[in-house]
Specification:
This protein has helices at 23-29, 47-60, 74-86, 89-104, 174-180, 201-210, 234-244, 258-277; strands spanning 113-122, 135-137, 142-152, 157-164, 191-194, 215-218. With 282 residues, the protein is α/β, with parallel strands linked by helices. β3 (142-152) and β4 (157-164) form a beta hairpin. α2 packs across α8 and α4 (89-104) runs parallel beside α8.
């Protein structure tokens, strides 16, 4: 909880930008970045500055052309984001930090229970052709993309997928896509908590086909409860979405490609876990 007593644990006023990595955070990420390819000239780019540039765009939500001059050029930062997304570097960094956070909390590396939910995000006001089309979520009345996230009972992001908003949880296979793309990453996952949007037969049948060992528990809202009520397990994933949305780049869907939108979602989770691992104690 944010109080005056623990405010010092979150103080980043000694950094050039609050989004910059501290020395301790860079120590966690640096060994996970692959070295330059052999041949040609030596790499002259400061990779820590590149990561700081990515974190600046993620935290502030600024345009690429608005990156400050004391950070690497926008083309350099953008190209490294593309490279690390396509070669799997972001996924490797994310999974390594995830395991470290689990071990820090005294948990096993592979969780046994998870919580799934989705968030529809309004698309940016762009015109012209798109590489990956948007969709319209009739329930939320939002035209844009939908972020499907799977978290553990600590609220740490396990897996994420971005797709058009018209792929629904109940009638179509948005949730099944998330579970099918785990590819055995969490072999001991046995329990899945979800809201009423996942109780449809398509999701249930698809989940049995791709993850036969996982059982689903639907956490429904009580009709007797008046006003706001915290629902068991469901509040965990909703809190995680709130954590990730502190990054202003995720306020809207600004990306033309869903792959790039997922990359920023992973970066937001990496930002969260590095700060959790390096949090000061007072």
């Amino acid at each position: 909880m944010w109080t005056n007593e623990n405010r010092a644990r979150y103080d980043r006023s000694n950094l050039r930008y609050p989004s910059d990595l501290t020395d301790a955070e860079w120590v966690l990420i640096a060994p996970l970045i692959p070295p330059a390819k052999r041949g040609g000239g030596k790499r002259s780019v400061d990779l820590r500055a590149v990561v700081n540039g990515l974190m600046y765009v993620l935290s502030t939500g600024c345009q690429w052309r608005a990156i400050p001059k004391d950070l690497p050029a926008r083309s350099t930062v953008h190209d490294y984001l593309d490279l690390w997304d396509y070669d799997g570097t972001l996924d490797r960094i994310h999974h390594t930090l995830y395991v470290a956070c689990r071990e820090q909390a005294g948990r096993d590396a592979s969780p046994t229970a998870g919580v799934i939910d989705s968030q529809s995000v309004k698309g940016a006001e762009k015109r012209g052709p798109r590489f990956d089309p948007q969709g319209y979520d009739a329930g939320k009345k939002i035209k844009g993309k939908k972020r499907h996230v799977l978290v553990d009972t600590q609220g740490l992001l396990m897996h994420a997928l971005v797709h058009p908003a018209d792929i629904q949880d109940r009638d179509r296979d948005g949730g099944v896509l998330v579970m099918a793309m785990l590819f055995g990453l969490y072999p001991f996952l046995l329990k899945l908590y979800a809201d009423g949007g996942y109780q449809g037969p398509v999701f249930q049948t698809g989940l049995r086909r791709v993850c036969r060992q996982i059982s689903v528990e639907i956490v429904k809202r009580s009709d007797q409860a008046k006003g706001f009520a915290v629902l068991p397990k469901r509040w965990i994933v909703e809190r995680t979405i709130g954590w990730l949305n502190r990054c202003r780049r995720l306020a809207n869907d600004w990306e033309c490609r869903t792959r790039k939108a997922r990359a920023f979602l992973l970066l937001a989770s990496i930002r969260l876990m590095t700060r959790k691992l390096c949090q000061k104690t007072i």
